[in-house]
Backbone:
């Protein structure tokens, strides 16, 4: 994909689109893929575009270098006696592969069926830009904001935010605030305002099994030496019981039981029934830890997942080999009070103990992040609910999120404050997949939500 240039190639085709959408479209055209070094220049251009946009709004801006991609900071004039609100977002995006499955160019946004189609439309540029434009609208209408505001936007969220923890420590005093707001989560159904008060943590690893020094003829050597492909299948199957429960020793020791009020509340949430999960996923059936609904499993129970597995010949037809090695990529979603480090030690012991004979095992530990949970009935939680109610004209629902935003617990550990998770994404947004999309109505509601949120937090 080409980087955006000064001349907007789609200016003519979006001339009838609102100025707010034109801003978002310009933002979306940057292929700011943080994991791909070939796009490092595009990530920087995107950060510089943000700086220019925020400065034009009258905010004081700072571009901070990190070992990878820049952090963007913007502030209004801070006055004594007012609450300070930090709004976080990320301007980096996931890769677009497989490109052939996109219905349109992922970095040339289009509006179809009332939705914006582009990489980053929901994760996180659309939701983030709604906050920026909400602030811009308030400044334009009132000349000032009701709170002391800090925007903190990073370009490394999609690679685990490696530079942000050190940045927070270094700038802790300058980032002091009363509460943090993030819109990088979801709504349970269209038109249903949703406040998230929890996130699952994550711990990742890759297990590699090595057998012979090279691929072998399966007729000449099969049955004489261990087959790493068969071994990895046995090893992966050891992670779960037949009922779906994780079989790693100690895995559930620190898991908090669900509160009765949570289970009762979630049973009434629209759009998250078992039937809804079947419809959204297109799966022929549901499966998971017994005794819990699909919503409870994804929001508040830990899991072990196989993200990828491979070995041997992958081409057309047959090639009768005994492969030299095999691998599996694993991730574990965690809930309070599970420690990613403790869980990964438990997992390593399990894998080593259950490794079939005849192969060598290596476990490479990947990125991790802590789980998070807060009180949705705190004064800031109630203010967020009031803002959602005003913005959507409906009663908000309270959920925990199944996904992970590791930096949220890091915010609490470093700055000592909680985070409000104000989701605008829908379950069919296709984040991290081809044909990512974001409803125009949710983008517009997000602008209203920012204005209402800052007003409610100022009270």
Residues:
């Amino acid at each position: 994909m080409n980087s955006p240039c000064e001349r907007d190639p789609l200016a003519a085709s979006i001339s009838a689109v609102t100025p707010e959408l034109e801003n978002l479209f310009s933002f979306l055209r940057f292929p700011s893929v943080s994991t791909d070094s070939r796009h490092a220049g595009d990530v920087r251009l995107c950060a510089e575009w943000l700086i220019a946009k925020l400065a034009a709004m009258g905010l004081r801006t700072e571009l901070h270098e990190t070992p990878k991609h820049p952090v963007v900071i913007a502030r209004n004039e801070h006055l004594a006696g007012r609450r300070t609100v930090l709004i976080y977002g990320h301007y980096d995006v996931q890769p677009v592969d497989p490109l052939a499955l996109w219905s349109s160019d992922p970095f040339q946004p289009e509006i179809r069926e009332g939705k914006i189609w582009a990489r980053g439309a929901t994760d996180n540029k659309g939701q983030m830009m709604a906050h920026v434009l909400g602030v811009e609208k308030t400044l334009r209408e009132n000349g000032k904001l009701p709170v002391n505001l800090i925007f903190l936007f990073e370009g490394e969220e999609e690679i685990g935010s490696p530079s942000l923890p050190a940045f927070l420590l270094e700038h802790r005093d300058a980032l002091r605030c009363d509460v943090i707001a993030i819109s990088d989560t979801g709504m349970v159904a269209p038109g249903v305002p949703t406040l998230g008060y929890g996130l699952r943590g994550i711990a990742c690893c890759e297990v590699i099994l090595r057998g012979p020094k090279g691929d072998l003829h399966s007729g000449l050597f099969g049955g004489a030496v261990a087959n790493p492909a068969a071994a990895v299948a046995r090893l992966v199957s050891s992670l779960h019981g037949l009922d779906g429960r994780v079989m790693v020793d100690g895995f559930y020791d620190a898991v908090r039981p669900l509160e009765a009020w949570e289970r009762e509340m979630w049973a009434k949430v629209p759009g998250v029934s078992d039937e809804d999960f079947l419809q959204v996923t297109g799966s022929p059936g549901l499966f998971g830890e017994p005794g819990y609904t699909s919503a409870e499993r994804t929001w508040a129970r830990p899991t072990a997942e196989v993200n990828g597995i491979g070995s041997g010949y992958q081409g057309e037809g047959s090639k009768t080999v005994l492969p030299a090695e095999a691998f599996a990529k694993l991730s574990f979603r965690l809930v309070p009070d599970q420690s990613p480090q403790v869980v990964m030690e438990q997992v390593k012991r399990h894998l080593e103990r259950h490794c079939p004979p005849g192969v060598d095992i290596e476990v490479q530990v990947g990125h991790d992040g802590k789980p998070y949970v807060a009180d949705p009935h705190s004064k800031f939680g109630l203010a967020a609910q009031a803002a959602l109610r005003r913005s959507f004209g409906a009663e908000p629902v309270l959920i925990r999120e199944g996904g992970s935003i590791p930096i949220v617990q890091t915010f609490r550990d470093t700055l000592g404050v909680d985070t409000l998770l104000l989701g605008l994404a829908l379950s069919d947004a296709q984040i991290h997949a081809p044909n990512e999309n974001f409803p125009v109505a949710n983008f517009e509601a997000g602008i209203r939500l920012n204005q209402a949120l800052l007003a409610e937090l100022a009270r």
